[in-house]
Amino acid sequence: MKRGLGICWVAREVYGAADIRWRIFQSWLLTSAPRWLLQLYTGYGEGFAAWLRAHAWAKPMVRRLMDCVVQPRLRRILYA
Asked: Higher pLDDT residue, 1 or 21?
């Protein structure tokens, strides 16, 4: 499997598969995230995404955390 494919379950669940923001998060996760976070995400992300699917009320909280990473990068893309 190519590096990066199939590991952004949480980002896809939070933003939706058609939203570019999950790809921005994926890029950050694979290139700039702390190693411990990448390991945590790859170990538990799929299960956590399934939990989020069943508990939609928690998605806005997780999205808010992910937005701390995504929004500055999205602004650079949009206003470059």
From this structure: 21
